[in-house]
Design goal:
single chain, alpha+beta, Rhopdopsin 7-helix transmembrane proteins, 2 domains, two-stranded antiparallel ribbon, 11% strand, elongated, transmembrane
Amino acid sequence: MIGGADIPEDNVIPICYKFDNSQARRIGVARAASGISTLIVSLVAIVIILSMKAIKQYPQRLFFYLTLATLIQAPTFTLEVLSVSYNRSESEQPLCSIAGVYTMYTSWLQNLIILWISVYLVRVIVLRLTVYNKKLEVFLLILFLVLPIPGALIPLIKNKYGMVGAWCWIKDFNSTDCVRHDNLGIAYQYTLWFIPVMLEVVIIAIVTVLIGAVLCVRGFIAKKYVLFQSEYRKLLRDSIPLLCFPLFFCSISCFELILYWSSLDAEPKYNLWMLNAILTPCKGILMIFGYLIPMIWIRIKDYRAKKGRLVLRKEDWRSDNNSSFLDTVSIRFQSSGGEDHYGSVSVYSTEIKN
């Protein structure tokens, strides 16, 4: 090992590891395992969504799109590891560039859909714009599928995809002698990833704070004025599950940026890289659970509300001058446990008589 690189015989181009072979292998295995877990969770989530027919409403479809993007992204974390050999030279790893392109494309696809969800939340909660445009939805979906392609292909110029840390990405060093500073590779990293992601994190963080403030104000108004309570409950029902996406995105993206800046040192921090290898693929899992748990809870609550129904029946009709009217109403309430509760209420008062 010389300067962080394995120098093979016969003057073959070396791989510039940040870690020794065993450390890099452990990090790679952890990343691949997390990717497989994300793949399984995404598949299960899609089955749940389709079985519950939870794609009829616009917010539900946004979550469905994000789940599909996570499903598409999940295999990249395994491909990144399988496309490299921890004992061979870079010249013997032709799949590394393919893995790099796939990673960049799917990562940006996921980021753009999260930005889409954040804009939707601003429209509904802050601006109170509820007008839906089907053509706009289709246009944005196609746009976000196409937009990441050029950025993912650009690093192929000058062959800038390669082994970085313990997986394939844009190289920031010169492979011939493992000198860290490669100006073109660093320029690709910042223009195609770090600067756009930092801007997105700042924008989404501001948006999230603004949304939280507006929800608090509207909650205070709804608590004070009964007229607005139904509207506020519906707003929470539709928007709260989606808020987990910008929150998780900002948190994990900030950690990834901190990891990169910490790796600028001569000695990379193994524990941080291992944590990143586990956490980054699991970002999709966190967002999926963050949405599905509230959604399933709401469905269970709705089911119990339907099961505990009110049954009204006539109890006493009186006739007066050829007219009849309802004097009292008997109420039977069936709780979720199956027990029946009875009572009666006068049409002239709200007092319930047992």
